[in-house]
Amino acid sequence: MRPVRTAARSMLAAIFVIQGWAAFSNPAKLAGRARAITDRLEPTIKAVHPSLPTDAETLVRVNGAAQMAGGLLLATGHAARPAALLLAGSLVPTTLAGHAFWDVEDPQQRSAQRIQFLKNLGLLGGLLLAAVDHEGRPDLRWRAGHAAKTLRRARRHLKDSSPIPLRHR
Predict the structure, then answer these.
(1) pLDDT confidence of 165, banded at 50, 70, 90?
(2) Strand, helix or coil for residue 102
(3) SS3 for 42?
(4) What is the pLDDT at residue 142?
């Protein structure tokens, strides 16, 4: 199953690496559309820390860097689950800013933007699956329960058994 997971993660990550680089290297191209979202986020960003940047170009660049880094981590399988969560988080403002089909008047453009919105929704679903994928290994909850059961069994065994005398050489 490992080759399938590796291929799937790489395919899912490709768009984030490519589009992340485009946003990082040329944020001015996307800043106009992003401004609707970045202006709404400005009070929240300032509440986190007053010195954080709030201008659209910088936030587009940061989002692009996050997408590139997350895409590369996901594709290579290094920290794949946190990378998938990072990408999911970066995809939400990207989708809202770039594909707000409900604001488009032209029917053809509205349809095109709806398709892009739904494509991003599908990507978000894939990222959420990647974020919960344990690659066939048990998760922490199962391992903790299994360890507790093993300890209870060992304690019961020690209670039931008589002490073994130690031999001296």
Answers:
(1) low
(2) helix
(3) helix
(4) 80
| 93-102 contact pairs (CB < 8 A, 24+) | 93/34, 93/37, 93/41, 93/63, 94/63, 94/67, 94/120, 95/120, 95/121, 95/124, 96/37, 97/30, 97/33, 97/34, 97/36, 97/37, 97/38, 98/30, 98/33, 98/34, 100/36
- Per the structure block, which two tokens stand in for 88? 């999911």
Tokens 């199962």 appear where? 142
Tell me which residue has tokens 């659209």. 56
Quick one: tokens of 54? 């709030």
Average pLDDT over residues 99-119: 95
Q: Which residues of 67-94 are buried (b: 16+ CB within 10 A; e: fewer)?
A: bbbbbebbbeeeebeebbbbbbebbebb
For residue 74, give the nearest of 136, 134, 17 by alpha carbon. 17
